[in-house]
Amino acid sequence: MATLSDVARKAVVSKMTVSRVINHPEQVSAELRQLVYKSMKELNYVPNSAAQALVHNRTQVIKLLILEEMDTTEPYYMNLLAGIAIELDQRHYSLQLVTRSSHTIGRCDGLIVTGMRETDYDHIISHLEQPLILFGENKKGYDYVDVDNKKGMQMVTEHILNHGCQKILFYGIEIDEPFMRSRIEGYEETMKMKQLLPQINLMKNSSHIAQFEAEKVLQKNHERIAFVCASDRLGIGVVHAAQRLGLNIPDDVMVTGFDGVFLDRIAQPKLTTIRQPIVEMGKTCAKLLLDKIDQDGMKQGNRIYKPELIIRNSTTT
């Protein structure tokens, strides 16, 4: 097995430098850290996590606290978990998944929190003593990672307008949270810039409900129409409604989604959507949190990812 001395020789640095990179990476330049990490990887050197934990009085455990009800058929959180786990594994941390009823069980060094609602900030988040990073936009001053929700909805609405359709309905999730307000703003502002009337419809994030609502609209509609949806799940429901009524997609009805993590690819036709790089965002959540822990809780700021428009057959042939 490789030793700390082996790593030092390969990286051409002192053993003290290697130890500092492992135990106090914030005290070492990024260039030197990468040199030592590269040598550790090439030698398959694994630091003694138990010893590190004793030195720093740490548990080497990070909790992912999910405050909303999870749908077991939704791959969104699996992508997030994968990204977080990849980054934590590289820094020799383990991941524990907890919910609002179990988050106080056991110790941890920090938390990544997602699925929060307005009341959670006062009732749960403000009482957390460990460093934390939020996955999701917030206006409370907490460090967070998210995609540019407003820009994403602007992009997809402009895409519809560029294809000559001016009757565009917004199907959103009935939840008063920053990410949904941003998506609504993106749609509304784009419509108003073209002097078109926004039509906003909010509902539970359910494909069945979206199908039911879209069928009522489509049965009365006699012109080309588009639905920009705040999730791929809602978009799939609209697609089913159009197909059930024998309408052609995209000639009669254009449909878009938002998320792009799996459901968009199993729809028939495949769904035009805004893709969020969820795995990369998960990695960033973990990196920011571990850096925050190493820096004694210093604020890390926000990381906002650029959305990507994925064009498929639900809007163009």
TrEMBL record:
One function term, GO molecular function aspect: DNA binding
Q: Name one Pfam family in it.
A: Peripla_BP_3
Record-annotated HTH lacI-type domain positions: 2-56
Instruction: Answer yes or no on keyword Transmembrane.
Output: no
The record's keywords, sorted A to Z, are:
DNA-binding, Transcription, Transcription regulation
Which InterPro entries does the record associate with it?
HTH_LacI (IPR000843), LacI/GalR-like_sensor (IPR046335), Lambda_DNA-bd_dom_sf (IPR010982), Peripla_BP_I (IPR028082)
> Which PANTHER family does the record match to this protein?
LACI-RELATED TRANSCRIPTIONAL REPRESSOR (PTHR30146), TRANSCRIPTION REGULATOR, MEMBER OF GALR FAMILY (PTHR30146:SF154)
Descriptive protein name? LacI family DNA-binding transcriptional regulator
**Source species:** Sporolactobacillus kofuensis
